[in-house]
Structure formats: structure tokens, C-alpha cells
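for the writeup, i need someone to sanity check this before i put it in the appendix. the sequnce is what the collaborator sent (i think, or maybe the updated version? ugh). structure was predicted straight from it, no edits. if anything looks off just tell me and ill rerun, i have time this weekend
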Amino acid sequence: MTYPTMWDFGEKKKLLIFQRSFHEHSLRMRVVLSQLPLSVCVCLSAVLVWLFFPATLSNPLFLVFLLSQAFLLALCVIVPWHRLPFPSFLVIPILDMVSIAFGREGGQEALTGLSVLVVLPVIWLCASGLYPKLAIILSFIGPLGIVWTPLFIRGDLTEQDLTKPLLFPILILGIGVSVSVLTLSMVRQQRALEEKDHALKEALEASTKQERLLNTVMEALPLGVVAVDGDGHDILMNRRQRQTHSLATPEDNDDPNESELLVFDTDRTSPLPPDRRPVRRAVLGERFTDQLVWLGTGPEQRAFTTSARPMLDQAGNFAGSVVVFSDVTDLVNALAAKDEFVANVSHEFRTPLTSILGYVELILDDPHGLDPKYRKQLEVVRRNAERLLTLVSDLLAVRSGQIAIQPHKVDISELVRGSVTSAEPRAAKAGIRLSIDVPEALEARVDSSRMSQVLDNLVSNAIKYSPDGGDVKVAAWEDQEYVFCRVTDTGMGMTEEDQAEVFTKFFRAGGVRNSAIPGVGLGLPISKAIVEAHGGSIELESEPGRGTTFTVRVPS
């Protein structure tokens, strides 16, 4: 093993000095480096004089020049300039000019042009950027004093004697002006760069702070979040999403692509096609909300709702997407248990209700064996039992998601008029004005009883949820391949939260639950199931305090 020597350390220190930027050195080192070029030139001049003009070394003025230069270099090294007022070091280049004047006068018989050395302190003065006007003045007066002072000392001056050396100080002045202009330009650029650097540091600090905040929020979320770029590569994924991804990863594949993940449809067994998988849909730029999927297999399989929102660049082009996974397994299981409970209870209700209706029918079929007073009471029993049996049947149909329909040609206008006519007594009692806008005839292939059920329910709801009176308008029209029915009221209206849940079984808005308005929250889910069984759709628009509009669309 070889150890570094003192020479190695010295060489490294020298290299470090010259590799560093001038402004990175201490003030003392900068003063030394500024004086060093003149000191080197003086040393070379002394060597030349010693070799070729040794007699000049005995000239007192030349000796003053050499000694003063050595003294000034020593001052640069010894003086703690950082403790003195900042511009105090400028005294060195001014004294250099005086020293050069002695050297020119004492060595002009040996070396001509020693006065040219004044350009070095002039450059120092002008390049310092301090007192630029004074530096320019000194860059002319200093050289002028060097060439004129000896003339005044000798006396017997003429205009020609004063004019001959003027070109030299003028030349040095030009150099000083050029250096000053360049220095000021560099100072302005440096300040601009420092301001930009400061702004960039602040922006970087703010960005770093925002990144830390984002990472903290992402890790604290109970949701799985993944961000993908336009090519489908993951650019951000939080801890919860890494767990979700691990759940969907096959045991024999450590790095699956999207099509190889264990992602299943709502039946929990059918693999989702690649183009319907949440991340793939997001990469294609789709925007969707609450797509239900099952991830994994066996007892660890979990249900997730997924939503995606695209990201756009400054030009408005697709740049990626953010996909959110929310674990809803417990909710799905609870809903399944509730549906199972409703189905079981409904089955238990159906048998005794059928028996009750059967015996009531047998009693009512006897025209002479029953007192008219009791017959009327039994009619009420039969009507309510039939209503209860219909409700039980609808519960079972909604639970299974299957409602049987028998489409045939029906006049929709007639169905609308029938529903409005049936609702008129109740509307009049509630102080509601009913209006109708339908064509003379409007045919469509639908199940008339089921469509009447939908219309009756919508009109009934419009009246029910307008407790303070108002207007209920019912309209129907045809547009290309579809028939539309619209029921509009000016009643209570619904919030956005209520609108999102209005077609959910057993749901009732908070304001309605606290009122005396009856209902069990099945009318709209049943109506939606009937309309969808026809291949149609039902939509709503609502605003609290302004009313609600339901629009039904079915194929004609």
C-alpha cells in the first residue's frame, strides 16, 4: 500500500484552488489572485534585467519598484481583508500604479514598455465592479500620471512633450472602459441568475413540500390509488393499492400484466375482458364511476368499486389517468344478506296471503250466505291482501332482478291519461294542479299493466312529494326509435346525495323520513327494473325546493 505524500497533498490543494470558481474563494484569496498576474510579470521583468541589464538593479527607483511589489504582494497575503471595510482592498491596485511609475522611470534604459504593466491594476479596478465611474477615471489618470509626472519633475515642458505620450493613457482608458462595461453586464447577468436560482430553489422547496404532503395523504387514504401515464405505465401507487394489486396477482406470476390479473365480474367467477378492466379503461381515456369488480380467488376474494378520471396536459391532450379502488366487500355481503332475508320473508308471506285470498274468495262467491255489511268488510280485506301479495311479488322480482313483461301494441297516450285521471281526486285534495301534454295517439310495444304501474308510481310520487301544493305536469312524445314520458313536479326536490341513492331499494331521503309522508322505498327501484326490462332507461333531474323531473325512455 502506498501512502499520499506531502507533495500529493500540495498538488491536490493547488488543483482545488484553480478548479474552484473565483467567487467561491475567500476575500483574501481573491485579493491574492488579483495581484498575482502583476507579481508574476514583475518577477519575469526582474529576471530579464538581472540577465541582460544587471546595472539597472543598482538603480534606486527600480529597486523601489521591486521592493514595493514584494511588499504589496505580502500585504495581499497578510492583511485580514474580511475584517476591514469591503472596498479597502482597492488601495492595492492604486499603489500598484505608483509602484509601476517608479519601475518605468528606473528601468526604461533596460526594458522599454514597463508602463504597460499598469493595464493589470486597471483591469483589477474596473473588473471589481465597485465605484465604476471612479475606476474609469483612475484608469486614465493613473497611466497619465505615470507618463507625465517625470516630465513635470524634469521641467522645461512643451506642448509636444505633453502630447506625445497621451495615446498610452487613452489606450489604457479604452481597456478600462471595456472591462468596466463587461463587468457591469456580467454583474447584471449574475444578479438575474441569482434571482432565478432563488426562485427555482423556492419552487423546488414548495414542490418538495407538496410531494411530501401528497405522499403522506396517499399513504393515509383508506382507498387504493394508482396513477398511470398515457402508455399505461404506473407512475404512482399508494400502500393500499399495492396490497390490492398483490391480491389480484396469480400465485405463479410475480409480474403479471393487466390481462393476467385475477379480475372478475359481479358474479365473482367470470374473468373480465381486458377492455373492461378498470386500469385498461382508464388508459384508454375513459371516465367512469363505481364499476364493481372482484379481485382474487377463494376465501380472500374481495369486492372493489373503481372510479377513474383522466389527466390532461397543458394542450388538453390525454396524459394519463388516476384510478381509485375502494373495498366494498362488507357492504356487498351485507346487501346480499339483506336481499336473502327479504326473499325468505317474502316467500313466507306469500303462502299465508295466498291462503287468505283463497278463503276470502270462497266466502265472497256465496251470494246469499253473507250479510252485505260483512261482504263490504271482506272486500276491504281482499283488496288489501291483493295489494300485499303484489308488494311481496315485487320484492321477489326486485331481489332477483328479473321482472316478467309481455309486450304488445299499446297506446301510451291512453295509459298516461288513465294514470292522470286516477290521480285527480288525490291531487285535488292536496291542492295540486294536474296538467297533461300528450298526442292523440302514441303507440309502442310495451307491457300495458307494467307501464301503467310505472306511470302511476311517478304521478303518485309527484303528488306525494308536493305537500304544499303546486303543479304536476305529465307529457309524452315520440323521437325516432323511442317513446318518452316525463313527469315534472314543483315539490320538495332532492339533493345530489339523495339523487345518487334514489333507485336503491328501501331508500328514503332524510327529509322524507322525518315527515309524515308514507312509503317503503320500493316504488322507484321497481319502476326502474320495469323500464330496464323493456330495454329502456329512466333519468331524473332535481333541485331542493324547486321540484323533480323523471323521464322514461322505452323503445317504440
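Confidence is low (pLDDT under 50) at residues 1-7. Residues 39 and 69 are 7 Å apart (CA to CA).
thx in advance!!
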